[in-house]
Structure formats: structure tokens, C-alpha cells
């Protein structure tokens, strides 16, 4: 197979899938996107926080200015307990700006996907197909084919599963592994790889009262924590409630569950003047979902590879989930670009090696990130006496906050960047970004 015939099928057209489309486009690698929803860009879902690690990718594509126009910068985090007592501000976002020259920003899923979609030319838009629910996958020694429920099929060199925590691609990958008698048991992923300890009610509502654009508030206490991110026109809260028992089974919730949730927690404060009930009564959108956590053991099998929530799922407390998915794409795209750059035949050996290097470079970082997010949620929900003590008496210390952020800064500065795109326009802070090595031009 020549490099010019290398084609990627991306399943999932959310932020991570569109990140993959942009990265592959920059590398000159052909792709299609298959999205199960009616449109690629939809107005649904909770807000996202992009950290410096995710913003580095947007900077490489020259998208920071347009992204800044549809997002709000985040500064100090005001922390309250369940009865409104002040727990002390957290300055983690401020330290991000000091260390890396760029502050985390809150953005709607719709706005982020629009920015990533608009960054691609019309020729790429023509290769994005909504209403494509995957039914099955078939592979041969030289190709992979995705069969959709509407009877259409798409064939390429590899498949990237960017279809979220309940990934159908991950499930199909496992089925293919089980169907092959020569597959070692260690290469077969668990059927339910994630554990759910919390569920989350998210609410989007018009920005009101003493909530000001750019505000980030948190409400902490036994069994439930709230994060509030305030935008220019709308605000979003995420409420994280610990379940009586963790479960590996998928949980589904309906309107009655949502109403019962509000009846129990509606009086909790989001700010000095706004409660959960106020937000819910004026809601624009809401949803009650389970918060899976964990890291899949094997991120690839044959011609299939996973990115983002399909490979690892974080609780939202640190805002790192989407950001890590974007970095997954960067590392994977670099490895694929090396394979395509070689020219000539691209065999299974090359693909397997690229997938292996991708997981090797990302796995440890993701495991630590997932662990950190879980600990942050446990601390905010006072899971134990120790967590409660740390939340009440340690995390509020500005010295402690600075210590943790200084420890994290070198790793953030080393966030992988696309090796085939020159970096320009990335703000600098106290800790210089580590530049990509061996930049190369990858031609279509």
C-alpha cells in the first residue's frame, strides 16, 4: 500500500474526532468522519474547560484568536461548603497563566466543535458524514471496513475510535479479538473497563445575579460537589454525586431521576445569591449521566485504535478529559505521519508499531491524570475524613496551591505538539514550552 492510499476512518465527530480530522488534514492524510448524530456540530452537552495542554493544539493551527472569541478565561475558583461557608479561593487557573502564558478557558461543546469544523476546508467537510451509526467492523490483511446501520460501508487503512466512553468501536475491537483464537487473553479488553463511582447532573442556564463571566465556583461537601463555570450568556454547573456502591454496569437515568436529584440538592449554593434550584428553574438544557472512570488496557487491536474517552475516562473535576483526548490525537497523528512519510508499502507491522508507540507515550500520563481527577472528586465530596481534612485545611493554602502547580508545570510544558506543523503564536510564561523536535513537511 502506498502512502498516497493511506486512509483513516474516524468514528465520532465530537471535539476529539474533529481534532483528529484537523491533525490528519495538516499531515496530508486522507480521512472520513462517521458521526451517529444528525449533524456534526450540535448544540448539546455540557461545557468543557480547555487547559494549556489542549490550547497548545489550537495555537498550532492558528485558532487561538477565534477560540478566544467564543470562550471565557478562567481565574480564581471560589469555594463554598453546602451551607455557603467560604472555604478559601483556589488559584490553580491563575498559576496556569503565570507558568504557561495562557489561562484555561471555558467553552460550550457546540462552540468548540464549530471552531474545529470551520478550520477545515469544504473538501474536508464533504468527507464528514452524520447519521452514520456503526453496525459492525470487518478487517482484511490490507484494509478495515465500517458497516453502518443505513447500509453504507466505508473502507480505509485504519479506524480511529473517537466515539466516547460507551465506544462501539471499542466493543467491536474486543469482539474481533475474541473471535481470533490466536489472540492472547492479555490483548482482550474487559467488556466493562470503567468503574462508575459518581453520577453527574449538568445544567446550562442563563448567566444571572452575582455570577459574572469568567467566574469559577465550587461547592464542596459530603457526597456531592458542584462546579460552576460562568460564560457571557450562559453558565453551566456540573454536580457530582457519589453513588451508594460503585458499579461497572452502564447506568441510565430519566426525567424522574433528574427531578429526584434536584429535590435532594436544590437548596445548595452556587454563589452567594444563586442556588441549584435557581439554575434548574431557568435551565436551557440539562442531563443526568454516569461518570465512568478508568483506563482501557489495550488501545489498539489490528487496524483499530482508540483515542479520548474511548480509551480512558476521567471524572470532570480537573477538566482534563477532553484535553487528554486532544493530546492523544497529537501523539497518534505524529506516529501515523512517520509511517506515511516513509513512502512505499505500509504494512501491518508498521501500523502495529505506530499504535504501540502511541500508547506507550500516553499510557502512564493518562493513568496519573485519571487518578488525579478521581482524587479531586473524592476530596470535593469528602469521601473520607482524610479527604475532608485536606479539602478544608490544606487545599485553601496559597502556598500549597503554588507548590502543586510548580510540580505540574514541567509536564505541562512538555505537552506533545504536532511535529509537522511549525509552532507560532503560543503565549509564553515562566516555564518555556518544550518545542517539537524534528519538524518535517508531510505532503498530501
TrEMBL record:
SUPFAM superfamilies: FAD/NAD(P)-binding domain (SSF51905)
Database matches in InterPro entries: FAD-bd, FAD/NAD-bd_sf, FAD_mOase_fung
Ranges of residues in domain FAD-binding: 7-173, 289-348
Co-factor(s): FAD
Stored Gene3D superfamilies: FAD/NAD(P)-binding domain
Entry keyword annotation includes Flavoprotein: yes
Keywords: FAD, Flavoprotein, Oxidoreductase
GO molecular-function terms, A-Z: FAD binding; monooxygenase activity
Domain of life: Eukaryota
Name of one Pfam family that matches: FAD_binding_3
PANTHER family according to UniProt: FAD-BINDING DOMAIN-CONTAINING PROTEIN-RELATED (PTHR47356:SF2), FAD-DEPENDENT MONOOXYGENASE ASQG-RELATED (PTHR47356)
UniProt similarity note: Belongs to the paxM FAD-dependent monooxygenase family.
Name listed for the protein in its UniProt record: FAD-binding domain-containing protein
Annotated organism of origin: Immersiella caudata
Amino acid at each position: 500500500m502506498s502512502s498516497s492510499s493511506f486512509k483513516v476512518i474516524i468514528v465520532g465527530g465530537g471535539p476529539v474526532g474533529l481534532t483528529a480530522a484537523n491533525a490528519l488534514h495538516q499531515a496530508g492524510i486522507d480521512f472520513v468522519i462517521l458521526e451517529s448524530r444528525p449533524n456534526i456540530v450540535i448544540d448539546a452537552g455540557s461545557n468543557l474547560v480547555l487547559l494549556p495542554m489542549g490550547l497548545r493544539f489550537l495555537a498550532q493551527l492558528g485558532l487561538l484568536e477565534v477560540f478566544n472569541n467564543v470562550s471565557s478565561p478562567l481565574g480564581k475558583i471560589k469555594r463554598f461548603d453546602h451551607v455557603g461557608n467560604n472555604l478559601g479561593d483556589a488559584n490553580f487557573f491563575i498559576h496556569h497563566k503565570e507558568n504557561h502564558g495562557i489561562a484555561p478557558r471555558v467553552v460550550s461543546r457546540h462552540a468548540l466543535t464549530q471552531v474545529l469544523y470551520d478550520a477545515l476546508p469544504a473538501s474536508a467537510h464533504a468527507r464528514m458524514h452524520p447519521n452514520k451509526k456503526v453496525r459492525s467492523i470487518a478487517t482484511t490483511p490490507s484494509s478495515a471496513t465500517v458497516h453502518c446501520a443505513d447500509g453504507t460501508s466505508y473502507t480505509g487503512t485504519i479506524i480511529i475510535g473517537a466515539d466516547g466512553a460507551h465506544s462501539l468501536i471499542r466493543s467491536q475491537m474486543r469482539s474481533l479479538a475474541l473471535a481470533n483464537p490466536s489472540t492472547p487473553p492479555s490483548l482482550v479488553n474487559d467488556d466493562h473497563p470503567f468503574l462508575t463511582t459518581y453520577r453527574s447532573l449538568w445544567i446550562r442556564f442563563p448567566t444571572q445575579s452575582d455570577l459574572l463571566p469568567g467566574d469559577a465556583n465550587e461547592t464542596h461537601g459530603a457526597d456531592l460537589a458542584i462546579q460552576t463555570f460562568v460564560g457571557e450568556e450562559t453558565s453551566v454547573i456540573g454536580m457530582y454525586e457519589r453513588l451508594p456502591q460503585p458499579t461497572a454496569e452502564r447506568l441510565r437515568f430519566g426525567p424522574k431521576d433528574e427531578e429526584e436529584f434536584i429535590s435532594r440538592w436544590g437548596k445548595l449554593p452556587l454563589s452567594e445569591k444563586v442556588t441549584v434550584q435557581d439554575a434548574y428553574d431557568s435551565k436551557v438544557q440539562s442531563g443526568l449521566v454516569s461518570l465512568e472512570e478508568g483506563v482501557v488496557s489495550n488501545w489498539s487491536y489490528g487496524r483499530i485504535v482508540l483515542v479520548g474517552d474511548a480509551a480512558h475516562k476521567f471524572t470532570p473535576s480537573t477538566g482534563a478529559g477532553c484535553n487528554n483526548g486532544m493530546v492523544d490525537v497529537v501523539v497518534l497523528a505524529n506516529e501515523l505521519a512517520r509511517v506515511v512519510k516513509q513512502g512505499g508499502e505500509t504494512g501491518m507491522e508498521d501500523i502495529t508499531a505506530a499504535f504501540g508507540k502511541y500508547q506507550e507515550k500516553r499510557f502512564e500520563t493518562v493513568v496519573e491524570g485519571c487518578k488525579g481527577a478521581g482524587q479531586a472528586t473524592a476530596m470535593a465530596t469528602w469521601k473520607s475524613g482524610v479527604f475532608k481534612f485536606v479539602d478544608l485545611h490544606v487545599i485553601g493554602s496559597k502556598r500549597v496551591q503554588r507548590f502543586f502547580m510548580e510540580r505540574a508545570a514541567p509536564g505541562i510544558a512538555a505537552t506533545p505538539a504536532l511535529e509537522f506543523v511549525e509552532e507560532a503564536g503560543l503565549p509564553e510564561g515562566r516555564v518555556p514550552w518544550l518545542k517539537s523536535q524534528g519538524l518535517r513537511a508531510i505532503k498530501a
